[in-house]
Write a structure and sequence with these properties.
The protein is α+β, with helices and mostly antiparallel strands and 83 residues long. It contains four helices and three strands.
Length: 83
């Protein structure tokens, strides 16, 4: 369940983005204002749209079990994704 909305100015949101993102990840929602006028809502991604860390790690471990994909090919794909 999401926590109540917090109102935050655009400048403050920009200045404290890492902290705000941690709070959003924990379920909080924010209304971002520009000169006191609400312009955006920052909220957690709904349900299954974002996998948990365990799900992501499990998925990465299972990549090598896919038949027909060599370890070298996987490494190249991973490196390409980091660029």
């Amino acid at each position: 369940m999401a926590k109540s909305h917090g109102e935050i100015g655009a400048y403050e949101a920009k200045s404290k983005l890492p902290e705000i993102l941690r709070r959003v990840e924990a379920g909080e929602r924010f209304i971002i204002t520009n000169r006191g006028v609400p312009v955006a809502e920052l909220r957690p991604v709904c349900g299954d749209a974002m996998p948990s860390a365990r799900q992501a790690i499990s998925g990465m471990k299972n990549l090598s079990k896919i038949s027909g994909v060599s370890t070298r090919a996987l490494r190249l794909l991973i490196e390409e994704g980091r660029r």
